[in-house]
Amino acid sequence: MKFETDHKINRILILIIIQIMIISFISCNSDYMPKPRGYFRIDLPEKSYQKFDTSFPFTFDYPTYAQIISDDQADNKPYWINLDFPAFKGRVHLSYKRIEENLPSYLEDTHAMAFKHISKATAIENRTIYNQQDSVYGLIFEIKGLSAASPYQFFVTDSIHHFLRGALYFNVAPNNDSLAPVIEFIKEDIEHLITTFKWSSVDLTE
Predict the structure, then answer these.
(1) CA–CA distance, 152 with 186 (Å, rounded to integer)
(2) What are phi and psi of 140, to 5 degrees?
(3) If we measure between CA atoms, which residue out of 6, 23, 9, 8 comes closest to residue 140?
(4) Which of 96, 106, 103, 105 has the alpha carbon at shortest distance from 9?
(5) Full-model pTM
(6) Helix, strand, or coil here: 198?
(7) How confident is the model at residue 14 (pLDDT cuts 50, 70, 90)?
(8) Is the CB of residue 34 less than 8 Å from the CB of residue 43?
(9) Facing residues of 168 across strands?
(10) Which of 4, 64, 109, 166 has the smallest number of CB atoms closer than 10 Å to its CB?
(11) Mind giving me the DSSP string for 75-102?
């Protein structure tokens, strides 16, 4: 059983490395030179977190100034939720899926969703998520560009049972130059979510 688990973890790590190589190749071929940025002053709340710990197959810490809302458009997907930031008109879509011998398909879909913004992006930077203690592995995609609709996406998986994807959107016209302070602020909250993320022991046979 341990050999099988190690084999699956190695498989997901290999797939992640392949994705990193593809993204790095595309990013390195960009001739874009960023312009100096100027921002309006935005009052940001003090960082404070609370735990999302229910009957879901995962837990994490999220900001006290954010709201957890069920995704009403996700039929028959009880573990799909939105993390809303009302003050900033921002939303992080969190979509959970159970793995049933289809992890490569989920990885391919996630890669495609990140790269569908490539026409509006100037670069896509990525970082690996590797938490062996809690079996949380994945990738973070930072999508650069003034008109990129989703500037920050990620996925986490244990490579055996669980897969969760997250994507940040704003309910305003894309202008990531003026939104930059807010994006950076929420990005810290998402990374705190990832750092505190754990899989729960729930019955997955239902």
Answers:
(1) 10
(2) -110, 135
(3) 23
(4) 103
(5) 0.78
(6) strand
(7) low
(8) no
(9) 92, 152
(10) 4
(11) TT-TT-EEEEEGGGTEEEEEEEEE-SS-
What ranges make up the beta strands (E) of 158-202?
162-170, 198-199
Q: Of 75, 74, 199, 41, which Cα lies nearest the Cα of 132? A: 199
Strand partners of residue 62: 50
Do the Cβ atoms of 31 and 172 come closer than 8 Å?
Answer: no
* pLDDT digit string, tens, across residues 82-136: 999 999 999 999 999 999 999 999 999 998 988 876 666 678 889 999 999 999 9
Residues in the chain: 206
| Residue 154 C-alpha from the chain's centroid | 2
Amino acid identity of residue 202, one-letter, is: V
CA contacts within 13 A on the Cβ side of 86: 6
Please report how many Cα atoms fall inside a 13 Å half-sphere around the Cα of residue 181, on the Cβ side.
11
